[in-house]
Amino acid sequence: MSRVDHRHRHLERIAEVRAGRSAEKVPYPIRIRTTEVVRTEQVGSGLVRITLGGPGTAGFEAHSPDEHVKLIFPEPDGTLRLPEQDGDMLRWPRPSPTSREYTVRRYDPATGELDIDIALHDGGLGADWARAVEPGAVAHVAGPPGGLIVPHHYDRYLLAGDLTALPAIARWLEELPRTARGWAFIEVADAAEEIPLSAPEHVEVRWLHRGDAPPGTGDLLADAVRAVSVPEGERVYVWVAGEAGAIKPLRRWVRDELRLAKDDHDITGYWKRGVADFDDDHEHEHHDHEHDEHDH
């Protein structure tokens, strides 16, 4: 069989899952790309949008609100170690290069522009880079390795997360059918971190203001989500991301109270307090088999 026969198999699989009954993670061909920063923009007080472009973004694929790419940074000594293309996979050098993972906020095939929104955590490698980077700078992007494809047939959708999950939630709300029903809970410091969202009319958006409490502390998000009542007999899909410890009560709630099947929810720790480069491999199983090498 020639490779051409397999080229679009992932697109067929995405269409099948989207039309089916339950969500599934679908791998895509993985690429390493050399891109350039086109512009940067503050999005609310908590995010910086980095728009990447140039010839390297041609053919990028975006299919899922929670898909992610890795930005690869130079090592402390200034050397840059990139993975190598190996067919539709990447071969990662050992030890793993310094990288950070970000949600794909938007890809426009017409312009080749790729947007990545980076949360401005103090002292974070990616946040420091995002604050300082200038148009024309080179950025190396690996992925996405795939994405979670969720059918549009659920009766309701429950989305919840903190500032790091906001880019994915914003994309979720844009890409859901306009007839979708449900809830979106977003924990931010204050109103300055809120951003405009394009939510379907029957998806209730609730911003939760944590005030002076440090990110990833407190029960604000978990308590708000657990107050939701899913109407009897309706199928709900639950997507949650944020600080690993803060969202732990929601894992239990989904399992013990809602009793959702594993294909009807996705709960992912995007970061962990005190850990610079956290990767919730347990939940994001597709990291394991898409990369030859764990990053962490």
Q: What would you say this structure looks like, in words?
A:
By secondary structure, the chain is of the alpha/beta class. The protein has two domains: 8-147, Beta Barrel (Elongation Factor Tu (Ef-tu), domain 3), CATH 2.40.30.10; 152-283, 3-Layer(aba) Sandwich (Rossmann fold). The chain is 18% helix and 33% strand. It has six helices and 16 strands. It has helices at 9-19, 125-132, 166-175, 220-226, 248-258, 286-290, and strands at 24-27, 32-43, 47-53, 68-73, 84-86, 89-91, 98-103, 106-108, 113-119, 138-142, 146-149, 156-161, 181-188, 202-209, 236-243, 265-271. The strands form four sheets. A seven-stranded antiparallel β-sheet has the order 7-4-10-2-3-9-8. β8 (106-108) and β9 (113-119) form a beta hairpin. The longest helix has 11 residues, at 9-19. The chain is globular, with a radius of gyration of 19 Å. Residues 1-5 and 282-296 have low confidence and may be disordered.
Count of runs of 4 or more consecutive helical residues:
6
Overall structural domain count: 2
Number of strands: 16
Structural class: alpha/beta
Instruction: Give the overall average pLDDT.
Output: 91
CATH arch. level architecture of the largest domain: Beta Barrel
State the assembly state of the protein chains.
Answer: single chain
Percent strand: 25-35%
Which characteristics define this entry?
single chain, 296 residues, alpha/beta, Rossmann fold, 5-stranded parallel sheet, disordered N terminus, disordered C terminus, oxidoreductase activity, SIP_fam, SIP_rossman_dom, NADPH-dependent ferric siderophore reductase, FAD-bd_FR_type
